[in-house]
């Protein structure tokens, strides 16, 4: 049996010139959930080091042997590159993410990745490695036994077996902060909030909410930034924390762009509350074609000549059943919940909904951004 989708037809009946009314979302959240203070952010650190103690799964690249030679020379051992004929060491790149306001003595997680052709880092120990920032200053030092999270990599001449990625590992709390990264919050006696999703309406609403508590202190300077000048009593470092906490806790109703997101690989459809469409008529129907094949035996009759013989004949039966398409009118300006209810009446599947939304968009009746992943 083969099923074919006959058609998903969308006709614009009216309202190409109809008035579209913007409806605000009624969900209230905190300012801290949609914006962040400029200057307060994470920073990336990196460095390269040596992992020792491997069980023959390391690498013998020239870079690794030179790195090992340098490590031992710092310890007062004079060696040559030829002295390192071992696969129990591996060169690695170490990366970390240092959070704002991290103080000397704080610890953080690090990620260790093989640089050479090491087979596995299982059981290894990272030797003292300095982690630097983009300014080439050292901000942390890493060291300790690494963990690959249960992975392994083994093999022979004819077969091999691997679980997870054994050339990338981590060291929980494996780095020690040695130097604090300065955090700059004030910009000419003011702070700036950066919106996670740029939107002029949301930026203006934040300004209005802040000014309602602290008059004439906030100014929306763009769709992504709101500049706030704290009152004089909050302009010291020991008081600005209190001011920022009060600002972040203020309620705000963010505005969102009407958007329909379609993931064709998984059949997922997500539509925002502000999605609206013009009046459309949707027809949906299926065509079912059933093809049956069978073989019949044809026997010679009673007075047939002696040369007659039994023959096999193919018989094909074709049945066509067309489901009656149902036309449903979706009126102008309905919400996404009403759209879903109307399309459910048609009995459409998520895959069919994708085709319907795309057809409505092509017809110019979908008042929303269509994103196809």
Overall description:
This protein has 373 residues and is an alpha+beta fold. It has 3 domains: 2-23 and 259-299 and 308-372, no CATH class; 29-40 and 184-252; 43-177, no CATH class. It is built from 5 helices and 23 strands. It has helices at residues 62-74, 200-213, 237-248, 336-345, 350-362; strands spanning 2-12, 29-30, 35-37, 43-52, 90-98, 107-114, 125-132, 138-145, 152-155, 160-163, 168-177, 191-195, 218-220, 225-228, 251-252, 259-263, 268-271, 276-277, 280-298, 311-322, 326-330, 366-367, 369-372. The strands form 7 sheets. It has a 6-stranded antiparallel barrel. Strands 1, 19, 20 and 21 form a 4-stranded antiparallel beta sheet that branches. Strands 3-12-14-13 form a 4-stranded antiparallel beta sheet, with helices on one face. Strand 7 (125-132) and strand 8 (138-145) form a beta hairpin. The longest helix is centred in the middle third of the chain and has 14 residues, at 200-213. Residues 1-25 have low confidence and may be disordered.
